[in-house]
Amino acid sequence: MRGWMNEGKSYIPPVGIGEVMRAGTVSQVVESKNAAYKVGDFIYSSEGVQQYSVSNGKHLIKIDSNKEDLPR
Description:
Elements: E1 25-28, E2 42-45, E3 61-63
Antiparallel strand pairs: 1-2, 2-3
């Protein structure tokens, strides 16, 4: 991630000061107006490192928390 903050030639533009650091995240829905996601659902996304984000629901992957192979 540190490399993404450097100016210069790269495969991806640098993350600027004050911008959200790129990262895959697992999050829990705290409020929803999307029928596909209810409060308490866990999702995987690329929303970056931040406490909260707002999404239109595209590019989210719902995690089935009842799967046996998930750590508890």
